[in-house]
Amino acid sequence: MTGRLGRGPRELLRWAFLGIAVVVLVVFLLAQRQSVDVSYGRSPSSSAGVEEGSAGELSDASVPSVAEMTALVAAHPVVRLPGSTARWDEQRIREFIGNRDVRILVAPPGLDEDERERVRDVQNATVRVIGTEVTGSIYQATADDLPSWRDQFAAGDVTVPLAALIAKLTDQPTPPDRAELRWREPTDRELAVVAADLRATGLHRAPGATLTKIPADNARNAFPDGARFVALPPQRDGAPVPRYGPALTRLFPGTPIVVLYGLWIEYHGPGHDDFAELAGASFYGQFGSRLSRYDYPQGNVLATYLDRVTDVRYAGLFERPLPYRPIDPLRVALPALPWVFAVCVAVFLILSIRSLRRPAAGPGIRPGSPRPREPRRHRPRRDRIPARLAGLTALAVEMSLLTDARSDPALARGIVRLRAASEALGEGLPDRHVRTLLTEAADELDDAARTLGIPGYRPYLYLRERLS
Amino acid sequence: MSHTLPIWLVGGVLLLGAGFATTLLPWWRAREQARRTAWSTARTEIDSAAVSRDAAATRVPEAEQLLARAELIAAGRGGPAAARAAAGYARQADRLWREHA
User: Fold this and answer.
1) Residue A215 contacts by C-beta under 8 Å, 6 or more apart in sequence?
2) What was the ipTM of the complex prediction?
């Protein structure tokens, strides 16, 4: 009963602090999830992995059995399996080989793992070309600069890696790289057709191009202001290739233009000098070997290229402003959480200790200790107990002078109960218990007074007189 | 984050400890008080019965038996239930002796 006022708010505060501490702890635990996802400035380009065949890179083409291919290679120095696309400068390679016995097996792109294994099992082929991937013995020759990649992916031309590999296998000095693809200016008629399509829909698809539609999300992330796309089939006939990029840049100044020749992607337009080479080199450097083995549709390659462009943009390499990123309140608050938690624990502890020092059931009046402050409405009732004890004790003393044999036992029993009440009060037992004892003592004394025949000693009369 | 780990651990242990303490201590106190109250009642009843016995005109073996049982229980100490049982026997004995006063 002590301190009932003020207990409510303090209790509430205590549990509120406990609640905050628990919430902080839970937030801390949830924030412990670690992530290995790294991105440039939270670039929205997707980084999900892909399985073989899921991006349409496998073609319908197949290869004959190992025995058949071995027989074919034994019969002819150069075997082109149906569907194969790789080409090279025959004259140059033939001169380079001279009269050495070099047998070349050319397989189509987009073979699956089994079929590629079969091609590699043909023992008598000196050089194997799968798609545009050139391998022989334990070696693999790959393009490593933009002109070589352009030859490989725009024209299917493998002259440079083929010459390098044959040089390695036959102990000759490596011939110098020489780009095979030759450019020409597009004619006015060609340019007019392309420009009309770009003005109308932003996309020109030449017959034979495998691009069906622009990957819209990737394009929006890479070029937020819009871009125009030209998709052309691979140029495998060895003739000069029309160079649309610069011509279209003159027609559409300030617009990003992406031109696809087969799987070769060129960027023209604003920032070309800054970043076309970087995007192209990093893209073909990473994906070149996959692109050479497989037969990807242009749409998937374009989507991946646009993701790379997005990453380059988000890297902030060219001081392009990054898009606004709202601050993460969790990241900001995380360092403060332990201290918030510690403060909550401390407050909860202090309030808990205070609540323990004031137990719920009142301890009564401890001997020698100052009486705690109490609410006014309890004072009369609590004060009545010691007063009543004192009054009854005085009555018992007075009665003991006049007592006789008949009233003696009742008086003695009353005194026993009075003593018990006094002890209970001293030990801090509940008021209810003390009051019960006092009432029983009063009953006994009343009994004794009636036996004595002195109405003035009846407790209710005696106490009324004394206490008034 | 690792340097703040002790704060979380110690804080969590302190919270748990404080929770247990603030729950168990008042409960234990209340139990102790209930026990003492019950024994206070039992002792009072036994003393009261003893007074009645001394004042009785004749011996009442049944009452003596009941009081002896109550004193036996009181001598063995015990919880509130034992105290209530002792008080009950003592009260019965007291009543019997008063009837023979």
Assistant:
1) A299, A302, A303, A306
2) 0.84
Measured CA to CA, the distance from residue A57 to residue A82 in angstroms comes to 18
Asked if the model's pLDDT at residue A38 lies above 70, the reply is no
pLDDT band at A48 (very low <50, low <70, confident <90, very high): low
Q: What is the pLDDT of residues B1-60, one digit of tens each?
A: 567 788 888 988 988 898 888 889 889 989 999 999 999 999 999 999 998 888 888 888
For A335, the closest chain B residue by CA position comes to B1
Q: Which residues of B touch A418 (CB under 8 A)?
A: none
pLDDT at A368 over 70: no
The shortest C-alpha distance from A390 to chain B (Å) reads: 19
Nearest chain B residue (CA) to A32: B1
B54 vs A409: CB contact, 8 Å cut-off? yes
**Domain extents in chain B:** 2-99
- Exposure class string for A90-119: b at 16+ Cβ within 10 A, else e: eeebeebbeeeebbbbbbbbbbeeebbebb
Give contacts of B 71-100 with A, CB under 8 A.
none
Helices and strands, counts by H and E, chain A = 17, 11
Burial class (CB in 10 A: 0-12, 13-18, 19+), A167: middle
The dihedrals phi and psi of A462, each to the nearest 5 degrees, come to -65, -45
In 3D, which of A394, A411, A421 has the Cα closest to residue A451? A411
Q: Which amino acid is at A359?
A: P
> Best residue in B15, B24, B31 to probe A by mutation, most A CBs within 10 Å?
B15
CA angle A297, A300, A305 (to 5 degrees): 125
Alpha helices in A156-187 (DSSP H): 159-169
